[in-house]
């Protein structure tokens, strides 16, 4: 039953509701969420945890005039539902439907586009200084999870905000004591101490009482009084030391606590930090019991919950990597596995169980993960950094300056390379080939199937410098994976089909398979290049003697990608054969089903055949 929810057209309707109605609305919203996400798939646990907070925020603040920035944004579904997108939830994360993350082009209520974590405070601060300079009376609210709070960028923003005068910035720490996996790090321990009330509770109560009694003209003085009171009673919180007025912890599922607190903070303005305690999966027993499983499920039956898959399914590339990592770690005790907060997604669950002292979840801290690996390599150990292609973007300078420049032996296992599907443009791993191949020393390997993934991991692991293996989200072609730890030759491709038409298709990665199918109709030669760097120059020189035209195929951006590598080599070697580069165009590619997106871009058998045939007519 969603009677009240169905009357909500915009947050203005939420602002009119009584406390009792807000409570009913929250219950209906939660029910709607479970039903809706069970039909589309999406991020469930985090959204169940932000229902009351979202209702309270839209009730108290004047959105969209006031800005709410949802960190990561995977918890913004209640916000989407209350801001006019209830019906669109049926197409969430599907082609043509709404995004799973806040998106400025989608709604005026989405103040900032997010999906990569820990950006909210910086963005809110940027908005706040403009409001200050333009004398716009506006509130800026960053809602950030305890996981997202572990990233350096969040602290860079707090550091900057703490000395910024005259702004309204409210940081709400949505602390559910969970990242995707259980949380890690010293900050988590600190937050647990705050949560237990041992640091600031008494001081907070005293401070709040003082503030509530004071008339607004003396608020500034009040803040000083409050700070002084805290100082007398015990140590200030870290956030107070950084210049914020800390409130909390409060129960983030209790509207009676949330609403007056938010109203109070709104009145106060300035630099405010509110610590809210929530439960991931709140209100859906199965998600409460296993928030990790329900972090980002596919479709499921709400009454049964997620069911274990029956039958035999092809292993995913992630599973192939996870198994390889365990086998390699068994064989080489120098191996250390590193993940920036993506244990499940990167396939490290088993590795952690079997090699706990060699497993490092460093938090949402990609830059640190890379340099941490560099340090390990300096001491003769062999770090394997398991990281999604899109998240390695965060560690780019570290990759160049800390790893490659020193030619350190760090292996990068790049998952989710290429189109990722439902998460869309924010998570697409489209750029790694281009941004890696321009860095000296680094090996860039692009396996075409699961078995080759393992073989190239072997090669890259044994290569005594920086090396990367990129593989896509999901399952491959069902190739049998040999349990070997033997490497294949570095920088050598393999001819898969000899054609007679004088056309050679050079495939970098899993698009080899549609390329092979397309080649039948074209009678083209097909090569599994295996490596973008080093490029198999000998093979290319030989092919150029017998072929008149080349096509490159990759699931990565065309600009600067593997096709560019081939063209550059041809130019340097005075090879005059024309090259048609097939890959991802120079646009951000929205969410949708992975294969459908590739087909839409002409990267399936038919598309390749058509485009190659049309191009051949022009040369
Ligand atoms: C830069 C970056 N690294 C990793 C991720 C993947 N990721 C998405 S949500 C999440 C956990 C966030 O935890 P928290 O902020 O506490 O939110 P919760 O899921 O607990 O609601 C992670 C690691 C990401 N989105 N961005
Ligand atoms: C929000 C976020 O960044 C992750 O939860 C991401 O959606 C995971 O994607 P995968 O499902 O590909 O692991
Ligand atoms: Mg959390």
TrEMBL record:
Function: Catalyzes the acyloin condensation reaction between C atoms 2 and 3 of pyruvate and glyceraldehyde 3-phosphate to yield 1-deoxy-D-xylulose-5-phosphate (DXP).
Matching CDD domains: TPP_DXS, TPP_PYR_DXS_TK_like
Record flagged with keyword Magnesium: yes
Protein name from the UniProt record: 1-deoxy-D-xylulose-5-phosphate synthase
GO CC aspect terms: cytosol
Keywords: Isoprene biosynthesis, Magnesium, Metal-binding, Thiamine biosynthesis, Thiamine pyrophosphate, Transferase
Superkingdom, taxonomy of origin: Bacteria
Family: Belongs to the transketolase family. DXPS subfamily.
Residues the record lists as binding Mg(2+): 146, 176
GO terms, molecular function: 1-deoxy-D-xylulose-5-phosphate synthase activity; magnesium ion binding; thiamine pyrophosphate binding
Functional pathway: Metabolic intermediate biosynthesis; 1-deoxy-D-xylulose 5-phosphate biosynthesis; 1-deoxy-D-xylulose 5-phosphate from D-glyceraldehyde 3-phosphate and pyruvate: step 1/1
GO biological process, one term: terpenoid biosynthetic process
Record text on cofactor binding: Binds 1 Mg(2+) ion per subunit.
Documented EC number(s): 2.2.1.7
UniProt cross-references to Pfam families, sorted A to Z: DXP_synthase_N, Transket_pyr, Transketolase_C
Taxon lineage: Bacteria, Pseudomonadati, Pseudomonadota, Betaproteobacteria, Burkholderiales
Species in which this protein is naturally found: Pelistega suis
Top EC class, one word: transferase
Record InterPro entries: Dxylulose-5-P_synthase, THDP-binding, Transketo_C/PFOR_II, Transketolase-like_Pyr-bd, Transketolase_BS, Transketolase_C, Transketolase_CS
């Amino acid at each position: 039953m969603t009677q009240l929810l169905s009357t909500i057209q915009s947050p203005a309707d939420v602002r009119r509701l009584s406390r009792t109605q807000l409570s009913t609305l929250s219950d209906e919203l939660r029910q709607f969420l479970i039903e809706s996400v069970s039909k589309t798939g999406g991020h469930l646990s985090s959204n169940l945890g932000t229902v009351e907070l979202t209702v309270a925020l839209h009730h108290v603040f004047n959105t969209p005039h006031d800005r709410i920035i949802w960190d990561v944004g995977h918890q913004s579904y209640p916000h989407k539902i209350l801001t006019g997108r209830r019906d669109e939830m049926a197409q969430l994360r599907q082609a043509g439907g709404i995004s799973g993350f806040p998106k400025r082009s989608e709604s005026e209520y989405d103040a900032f586009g997010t999906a990569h974590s820990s950006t909210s405070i910086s963005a809110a601060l940027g908005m706040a200084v403009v409001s200050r300079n333009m004398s716009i009376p506006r509130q800026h609210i960053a809602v950030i999870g305890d996981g997202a709070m572990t990233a350096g960028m969040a602290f860079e923003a707090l550091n900057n905000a703490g000395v910024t005068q005259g702004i309204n910035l409210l940081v709400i720490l949505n602390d559910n004591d969970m990242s995707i996996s259980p949380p890690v790090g010293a900050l988590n321990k600190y937050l647990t101490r705050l949560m237990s009330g041992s640091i600031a509770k008494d001081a907070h109560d005293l401070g709040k009482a003082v503030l509530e009694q004071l008339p607004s003209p003396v608020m500034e003085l009040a803040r000083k009084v409050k700070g002084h009171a805290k100082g007398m009673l015990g140590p200030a919180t870290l956030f107070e030391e950084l210049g914020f007025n800390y409130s909390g912890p409060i129960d983030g599922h209790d509207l009676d606590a949330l609403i007056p607190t938010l109203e109070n903070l709104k009145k106060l303005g300035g630099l405010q930090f509110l610590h809210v305690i929530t439960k991931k999966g709140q209100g859906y027993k199965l998600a409460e019991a296993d928030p990790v499983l329900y972090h980002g499920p596919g479709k499921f039956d709400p009454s049964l919950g997620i069911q274990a898959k029956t039958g035999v399914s092809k292993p995913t590339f992630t599973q192939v990597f996870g198994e390889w990592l365990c086998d390699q770690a068994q064989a080489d005790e120098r191996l250390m596995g590193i993940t920036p907060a993506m244990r499940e997604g990167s396939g490290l669950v088993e590795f952690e169980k079997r090699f706990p002292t060699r497993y490092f979840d460093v938090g949402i801290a990609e830059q640190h993960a890379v340099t941490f690996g560099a340090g390990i390599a300096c001491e003769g150990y062999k770090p394997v950094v398991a990281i999604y292609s899109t998240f390695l973007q965060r560690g780019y300078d570290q990759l160049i300056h800390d790893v490659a420049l020193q030619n350190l032996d760090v292996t990068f296992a790049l998952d989710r390379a290429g189109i990722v599907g439902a998460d869309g443009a924010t998570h697409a791993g489209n750029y790694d080939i281009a941004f890696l191949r321009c860095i000296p020393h680094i090996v860039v390997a692009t396996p075409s199937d699961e078995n080759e993934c393992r073989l190239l991991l072997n090669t890259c692991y044994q290569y005594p410098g920086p090396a990367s293996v990129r593989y896509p989200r999901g399952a491959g072609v069902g190739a049998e994976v040999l349990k070997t730890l033997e490497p294949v030759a570095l920088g050598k491709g393999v001819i898969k089909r000899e054609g007679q038409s004088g056309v050679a298709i050079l495939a970098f990665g899993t698009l080899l398979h549609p390329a092979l199918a397309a080649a039948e109709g074209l009678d083209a030669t097909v090569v599994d290049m295996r490596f973008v760097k080093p490029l198999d120059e000998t093979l290319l020189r030989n092919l150029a003697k017998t072929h008149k035209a080349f096509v490159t195929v990759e699931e990565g951006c065309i600009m600067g990608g593997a096709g560019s590598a081939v063209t550059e080599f041809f130019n340097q070697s005075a090879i005059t054969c024309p090259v048609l580069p097939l890959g991802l165009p120079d646009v951000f590619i929205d969410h949708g089903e992975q294969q459908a997106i590739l087909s839409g871009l002409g990267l399936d058998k038919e598309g390749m055949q058509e485009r190659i045939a049309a191009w051949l007519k022009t040369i």
